[in-house]
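--- STAGE predict ---
source: upstream dedup step, 1 unique chain passed
mode: sequence only
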Amino acid sequence: MVFDSPTMDAARPTLLKARACVAARIGDEITLKRIKQCGHTVQRHPENPDLTPIEVGLTRQELVIEGIAVGVIRSGSPL
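--- STAGE serialize ---
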């Protein structure tokens, strides 16, 4: 179920587990995705199975993990 205006609570990463849901920054863009790293490539996987993963080449772009998702606060109504 998708809610209007959810808020995500994040913690500073100390240990990143495989397929963790993270706030990942590339340049000025921050997105919430599950990530999977293979060598110098990271795949950002959306929760929506209809969308395809986004591949990031770490030799060409810097990816910064800003936080690990620890909870969602929903105050809006379902869309």
